[in-house]
Amino acid sequence: MPLLALRGLSVFPNMLLNFDVERAISTGALEAASSGERKIFLLAQKDISKESPSQRDLHSIGTICLIKQVLKIPGGGMKVLVEGSCRARLISISEEKKYYIAEALAIPEKILMRKSVKIEAMMRKSIGLFDTYAAISSNVSKETILGMFAISDPGRLSDFIIQNIYTKPENKQRILNTIDPVRRLEITNDILVEETEIITIERQIDSKLRAKLESNHRDHVLREQIRVIQSELGDGYTDDSAESQKYRMEIARLKLDDEIEMKIFREVDKLERQTFGSSESSVIRNYLDTLLELPWNKKTKERINIEKARKILDNDHFGLDKVKERIIEFLAVRQLSPHIKGAIICLVGPPGVGKTSIGISVARALNRKLARLSLGGVHDEAEIRGHRKTYIGSMPGRIISSLKSAGSSNPLMLLDEIDKLGHDHRGDPASALLEALDPEQNKAFRDNYLEIPYDLSEVMFITTANTTETIPRPLLDRMEVIELTSYTDNEKLAIAKRHLIPKQRKKHGLKGAELKFSDAALKEIISSYTKESGVRIMERSIAAVCRKAAAKIASHTASSIYLTPDMLDEFLGVRKFKSESVSEGAEVGIANGLAWTTTGGSVLDVEVNVLLGTGKLELTGNLGDVMKESAQAAISYIRSRALILGIQPDFYTTHDIHIHFPEGAIPKDGPSAGITICIAAISALNGAPVRMDIAMTGEITLRGRILKIGGLKEKTMAALRAGIKTVIIPSENEPDLDEIDQTVRNQLTFITAENIDEILDIALDFSAIKMGAEQNSAQSSIDEHMPIREDMPLTIAKAHIRQ
After folding, report:
1. What sections of 612-757 are H helices per DSSP?
2. Confidence band for 241, pLDDT divided at 50, 70 and 90
3. What is the pLDDT of residue 579?
4. 371: helix, coil or strand?
5. How many Cβ atoms from other residues are within 10 Å of residue 201's Cβ?
6. pLDDT tier at 799 (50, 70, 90 boundaries)?
7. CA distance 25 to 98
């Protein structure tokens, strides 16, 4: 007959079983049996995971069943109801197209002609055990129990009981394999005892679990009641809940100072007294979580290898020797004295010279985590020190937040654009930084949100600024200022070749052989397409060349490009800047000054015209107040020395003087153009031309003294680019010549002076003065009987002698 293999099921004679069939081999057997005598042999599998079992995978004893009902299930499969007829032993199986055919030997049920007392006792015992099982399991219906009392045969009773209890498939197959009814009943009793004991233990476990849950609920209710009572009484209450215990363990693990630990524990106590769902509890949790996320005792191991640090700094940046030297000094001191506090360095320089990038390189050289804060536009003190935690949405300040992000208590903290801090009615963030940047105070920095001191003494602070003029003096006093001056053209060339070109080639997917730059092309880019102290615009220009080259290579119009100066118009367009140059020879009323700007140095022409008038002084060229005052001081000096300088003494009443600075759209200010204005005015008044190969810079006083100026490095580089041969500087700036690039120093002649009288013979060509009244009205008015003074310039004294 057809064979159907069961998985996890067993069918007993005289019993009904309802089950689902899904396997194709099983549905095929059902269809074959249904079309015939409706008999089928049901046999249990040994391994239920087998999809296509062989004879070895099947038990030897099964049940011949009669199919009562078959229903097809939507989506495939069948639902079948069968009734067991008798046990049967499997002899062999053969495979048809869709199902198995089994040859089985029917095993008739052994009938007892007379029941002994022992068998009767065993049957009663089985009925009693089954009744107990039904009472505690609650899975047996009353009809099943009543049906059991109607059975008088021990074998059938055993099959009935085992069919209606929950036990392992192995136990059911064991009963099915046992032919002797008495032995079968004995095994059934053993299984009933075991299953009853298992259910009893399960009930005990359920009771304990239910009691525990009820106890927890009861504790929760009581705890809430106690909290309400304590709230009414105003007393404190401590509850060792799981959340509180977790917080306490994490706080104890941090090993904080006693004062800090006690403060945090008080917050945990406060959290325990909060009612469930209160807004205050969420505030306290956020506060505790923030405290626990801070790197209280986490530090990165600092690299003290000076040579390796120097190598990293040299690889990342060209030049910037003063900054590198200061970092190496800091490392050397750390090596000799590991307990020294963190340094506070302020890098000041024009945009694009590498202030921020060198801070990042220093962090890498020291093996410290980097915490970067951009302070540009910050105008609220709470941005630095945080908000009080009582406010909704409060959070720590930027310093503490950066430490949390860095995950280290000794990072390098880069405070970018510190000179652009603002302040308004909400406070002054620069004042809030005073505590953080003071080595004597930052060991106990107090953030408004934390309300407990945090040690910032291990943090190395590096700040950047474009100028120190907008930094408050108390804040500037706490920092060691290192000035980063403009790059020379040679330095820009080296930076482009070593850093910018490889970076942009890689960014644009170009190989070294596909795009090459000639030195002449790079120099032309520097002089004609950029006008800056740093290299940002130059990098953008190189990026533009790379884009053009990539387009040509991708379109197969060129396989490689070697950029030369005559190709720049095609790649970068027309030249944006014209190289500064001065005219040769000498001119009257024009002098070359030197100016410092945020993009570097430049040559600043001063033009003076003397016109008939009433003594007015006209100043044009978008000048600031300081520069106007310098012009007034220069005119006052000339008036006091008019006769000595060969100028008509009453020129300030009979002539108007117009002083003009070209490029009037550009604002100009500062005192360093004082001697330039003075020389140009003297030239215009007495007719002595000014040498055009000379440039000068210095502040002038009413007595003619020349005072110290700044930006000497940038000014001298501008002079060299413009073709100047000689530069006049104040004597007080003579030590600054050591800071000037050697290329500039070797190609320029420097003259130092303390008084403007010392440079008259150098800057002015008195020999070119026409002695006639027609050519020089100022010279003709000089009193021919005026005695020659010792401080009179030599050329003027000779002119008097000739007169």
Report:
1. 625-640, 651-654, 674-686, 712-721, 742-747
2. low
3. 66
4. strand
5. 10
6. very low
7. 5
CA distance 118 to 219: 56
User: CA-to-CA distance for 782 and 649, rounded, in angstroms?
Assistant: 8
Residue linked to tokens 């408004």 = 448
- Residue 609 has a pLDDT of 92
- Give the burial class of 64: count Cβ atoms within 10 A of its Cβ; 0-12 exposed, 13-18 middle, 19 or more buried: buried
- Residue 698 CA to residue 179 CA, distance in Å, equals 124
CA 653 to CA 639: how far, in whole Å?
Answer: 11
Integer distance in angstroms from the first to the last C-alpha of the chain? 152
Does residue 506 have an active-site annotation?
no
| pLDDT class of 606 with cuts at 50, 70, 90 | very high
Own/partner contacts of 283-292, CB < 8 Å, gap of 24 or more, are 283/389, 283/390, 286/389, 287/389, 287/449, 288/247, 288/264, 290/395, 290/396, 290/404, 290/449, 290/450, 291/264, 291/450, 291/452, 292/247, 292/250, 292/251, 292/254
Annotation marks residue 299 as catalytic? no
The residue among 203, 205, 206, 189 whose CA lies nearest residue 137 is 203
Quote the mean pLDDT of the chain.
Answer: 82
- Closest Cα to residue 646, out of 552, 775, 550, 743? 775
Q: Which of 211-225, 409-423, 540-554, 591-605 has the lowest mean pLDDT?
A: 211-225
Which residue out of 533, 672, 683, 777 is catalytically annotated?
A: 672
The pair of three-digit structure tokens given for residue 253, joined into one six-digit string: 């693990």
pLDDT digits (tens, 9 = 90+) for 700-757: 999 999 999 988 888 888 888 888 889 999 999 999 888 787 778 888 899 999 999 8
**Higher pLDDT pick, 501 / 585:** 501
One-letter amino acid at 721 equals: R
Residues 6+ apart with CB under 8 A from 182: 119, 122, 154
* Phi, psi for residue 480 in degrees, rounded to 5: -90, 115
Q: Which helix (H) or strand (E) holds 125?
A: helix 117-137
Whole-number Cα distances in Å, 231 to 8, 242, 267, 275, 366:
61, 22, 17, 10, 54
Contact 464, 417 (CB under 8 A): yes
CA distance 56 to 60: 9
Give dist(CA 59, CA 10) in Å, integer.
Answer: 11
Give the separation between CA 332 and CA 360, rounded to whole angstroms: 20
List the structure tokens of 5: 């293999």
